[in-house]
Amino acid sequence: MSALRQTWQVFLRSLRVLVRQPAYLGITVLQPIIWLLLFGALFKSISRIPGFTGGSYINFLTPGVVVMLAVFSAGWTGMGLIEDIEAGVMDRVLVSPVWRGALNAGIVAYGGFVILLQTAIIVLIAWALGADYRGGIGGVIVMMFVAALLGAAFSSLSNAVGVLAGQRETLIGAVSFVQLPLTFLSSALMQKSLVPGWIQTVSKFNPVNWAVEASRSAAMTQTNWGLVIERLGLLAGLTVICAWLATRAFARYQRSL
Amino acid sequence: MLHAIEAHDLRKTYPPAVEALRGVSIAVEAGTIFGLLGPNGAGKSTTVRILSTLSRPDSGSATVAGIDVLRDPTRVRHSIGVVGQKHGGAPEATGRENLTLQGEFYGVSGRELSRRVAHSLERFGLAGAADRPVKTYSGGMQRRLDVAMGLLHRPDVLFLDEPTTGLDPEARVEMWREIEQLAAEEHITILLTTHYLEEADRLAARVAIVDAGEVVVEGTPDELKSGLEGDAIQVQLSEGDERTAQAALERVDGVSEVVVEGRTLRARARDGAAAIPAVLAALEAGGAKVAAASLSRPSLDDVYLRHAGRAFAQAGVGDEVQA
Question: Could you tell me the CATH number of the domain that includes residue B263?
């Protein structure tokens, strides 16, 4: 009970930061709109590439942008923990008996909430642009959930790196280092059969690709539930491992003091 | 006698080879204020970090509120409050939100929590600023919030790591009153670290002077001061060699512990007033000219000088390096 309440309190603290800064909130809402319009314009002719079977460009791109957004927005949650370390907040929190898991889970829940908000905006705009959600509302919800789950894994990892490194530069380096390669080593922006063979092989082990394929299958096609459930399982397993790492990171930080 | 804090032979080395603690042992009687006095880098904060379960020693043992710090840190955490050197409040959150979050972390919730939060805002004079972000608070207000947060779950033992550093004199005196009240009226055991001699002298029932990772002397402020024989003499030279002057002073009857620091000589005298003429005569005979001479009753500064072998002001106070 108290573990849940503590998680909720940590979630609320993050949420207040967002709500109280109108500019930050504005950017958070605007970002998905710009991404979808920009990538849409950039990749409009993708559907004319010989061998492309993904249907209309907007149908193909929407799940890709949803997943990219999860990767790019969740990767930065560790920054808040670095600020807490610098301000002395972290040391005060760690001499309390608070469940360490709540310190990660509350932030992860906040990251998931922001992803759901942003993906909902994308879903609506894509719909206005002619996206055809053949998976129905259920499929769309699964897509959003997949994005949030991937975001939870990335957010936990970001929190772990933030607490262990304790320095902005290290976190910025690590996050920028993985974001783009993981995106390009997936079928987020390009159909799998149209990329080199080695990328196809690597993408099998890429969580971003697990999420893209599950989202695309759930929302845009006759859903292949076997594939979706398998990918959800993989993502859930990854999230649990990352959350465990992040929770352990606090003890590791204390040992460095 | 019941000890609320007991530390035995705490040692800690930071890589590569900074010996922060070289065997610190202290015992604090329940319901009293204990002062850890020393310059920055002496090991005060490291001791507090270990006793408050934030950090672990390389060796040694400690109990707080009767609970083993190393074996059962979670239970210790329920019994202690900690006010660190840095402000612990989340700057973007309001005072009320900070206190609420703090309460939840200690398992206090619901109506009991809102009642305690309101009461502590009132008590620490923060009721008017309760719903303002902490980053808009003055230094004194932030410090009061830190103490309020440290006390919200009603701990038996409170750690105050340099509670008045950076406060203006008015806020400092106010904080002193608050701390005195806590010990006197609520019987909380307080471990206070400070590099202000005046603060330890005023607040602490017992003081341990820490230098270079070791407790060099411990006792009540009065014991420590009366352990010094007689008065403190301080002489400033304007001309002449310090070493010759030192040798001359050492030959004066009733004068002992002559220490040279730059152009200043410090010494102790059984009866200061009677020794001064002899001191001045001896210096003159030794070819030294005296710019100023002063005589004072022993202070904790003299205690520090005697045990650490250097004046407190010379020991890097104000130097920002922390260990």
Answer: 3.30.70.100
Does residue B20 sit in helix, strand or coil? strand
Does B321 fall in a domain? no
Mutate to test the interface with B, among A5, A10, A18, A92 (most CBs of B within 10 A): A92
Backbone angles phi, psi at B256, to 5 degrees: -145, 175
Which of A86, A94, A96, A257 has the highest number of chain B CBs within 10 A, making it the mutation to test binding with B? A96
Residue found under tokens 């990171």: A249
Tell the burial category of A50 from Cβ atoms under 10 Å away from its Cβ (0-12, 13-18, 19+).
exposed
Question: Which of A7-11, A184-188, B111-115, B240-244 has the lowest average pLDDT?
Answer: B240-244
* Domain extent for B239: 229-297
| Burial (CB count <10 Å: 0-12, 13-18, 19+), residue B260 | middle
Task: Identify which of B49, B74, B109 has the shortest CB distance to residue A97.
Answer: B74
Distance from the B82 Cα atom to the nearest Cα atom in chain A, whole angstroms: 7
Q: Kindly state whether residues B243 and B210 are assigned to the same domain.
A: no
- Total domains in chain B come to 2
The answer to whether the complex's ipTM is over 0.90 is: no
Please tell me which of the candidates A13, A16, A254 has its beta carbon nearest to residue B54.
A254
Q: How far is CA B231 from CA A200, A254, B294, in A?
A: 86, 46, 10
Dump pLDDT digits (tens) for B51-62. Answer: 999 999 999 999
Helix (H), strand (E) at residue B208:
strand B206-211
Regarding whether B214 and B67 lie in a shared domain, the answer is yes
**The pTM is what?**
0.84
